[in-house]
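Dock S-adenosylmethionine; give full complex structure.
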Amino acid sequence: MVLLYKKRDVIGIQPMIMERKFPTWHFSMLNDKLRNEAIKEAITYYGVDNKVVLEIGTGAGLTAIYFAKHGAKVVYTCEMDEQLYHVAVKNIKENNFENIIKIYHMTSSELIKSGIMKEPPDVIFTETLDCGIVGEGFWSVAKDIRTIASSNTKIIPDIIKQYGFMIESEEIYNQNKISGNFNGIKLTHINDHSTTTYFPIRYNNFNVKTLSESMKINEYTYTTLEHGIRSSKFIAYRTGICHGIISYFQARMGPSIISNDLRDKGHWHQAFHPLQEPINVKAGNTYIMKINKNGSITIVSEKG
Ligand SMILES: C[S@@+](CC[C@H](N)C(=O)[O-])C[C@H]1O[C@@H](n2cnc3c(N)ncnc32)[C@H](O)[C@@H]1O
């Protein structure tokens, strides 16, 4: 058996014989009705009739087809995955939108550099968010958007808020680390490969003791230059051992949101950001944590 990790979240366990390169998470993503409805609501809210749209990341073509169906004049869309590109080309043709949707097997940087688009688009859409926001190339997509957008371009999503809370959960922490020895056998070198940024988990499947309220820990837009490092303040409401932070995002889609909030049952996992070493926290004390550009967290200070 092999565990297939791809860019978005964990994808499942499949027999080795079935291992394949296709990003299989696209099935669950396309079946995520909350996500799809929010995208449609954003398109209706902004209105795209006769507008020029740029989509970064075509996937199977669903969202480009939504834009075309809602009256866009032209939809430029690029997909860097070759298999998905071919899938989307066929889907676009099958839905008779090949005159409106111009699809390219390119990255967004390549498309922008190519000069194919002569003018800034009226609307830029991208849904390239992994569970912890930045893992699917957020910073390079943001740079591309800043290169091509004009001050009148509507960007969907326009803001992505990230929330998080401290937890005690040896079970989650141990998804990424081994501790102790195995009947005298030392295996700690595997910890050289532990994830230091964040990794996807289904929060509700684990034993967890929450240690703080859920707070807004970060805010992203595609047009703000560098976000740098942010600090977040958590006040512990229980005494315990903090293994890290659970985070989830809400990306605004017009009047609606797409989200991996643990109260919703969507296709995204939640993100767990482990501390390098667990820390003892005391109810009532304040903990300042740094949220780094790559999504890793570090404890900065504790105040009683
Ligand atoms: C999460 S899917 C969304 C697909 C489709 N827009 C939808 O919402 O159904 C994102 C897709 O974007 C592609 N992608 C990510 N970054 C890209 C980039 N910079 N340029 C082109 N494609 C990109 C990925 O390969 C993936 O297929």
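Observed: The pocket of S-adenosylmethionine is lined by residues 29, 56-59, 62-63, 78-81, 84, 107-108, 127-128, 136-137, 141 (CB under 6 Å).
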